[in-house]
Write a structure and sequence with these properties.
With about 140 residues, the chain is of the alpha/beta class. The protein contains five helices and four strands.
């Protein structure tokens, strides 16, 4: 595990174990990040992938969004948003994968930069450490 970051450490399992009282969903132990967006009044589920987008990623994220909507969202909250961040994606494949999904889910690709100011190099994990952490 990377010493500089703990991306999986605040996943669904820890969140549910710490904050839930009346339910536990064991299938949610693999989602990467869960946030609550205060201004939008909604949960945001984020899945991080170190590979090119595959259609099954959308189904898995849809599952997590549905679970949060059914088990955590209150009447005062807006619908949960799902964000899938991949190393790369084909826009046509992504469009087809999301075509029949009625929930607000978006797919984005990330770019890693090789340019990093020297003062940050010692305090941030390397690209390899981040990729290794995400692939575990």
């Amino acid at each position: 595990m990377c010493n500089h970051c703990n991306i999986r450490g605040w996943g669904f399992e820890n969140f549910f174990l710490k904050y839930s009282r009346n339910f536990f969903i064991p299938y949610l132990t693999q989602a990467d990040l869960l946030f609550y967006q205060v201004r939008l009044h909604c949960y945001v589920v984020v899945e991080l992938k170190t590979e090119k987008f595959k259609p099954e990623f959308a189904g898995k994220l849809n599952f997590y969004v549905t679970a949060v909507n059914k088990n955590m969202k209150t009447e005062q909250d807006n619908q949960t948003i799902g964000i899938l961040i991949c190393k790369d994606k084909d826009d046509v494949v992504a469009e087809y994968a999301l075509d029949d999904i009625s929930q607000p889910i978006g797919i984005a690709r990330y770019e890693l930069t090789k340019v990093l100011r020297d003062e940050f190099k010692s305090s941030l994990p390397t690209i390899e450490e981040i990729e290794n952490e995400l692939s575990e």
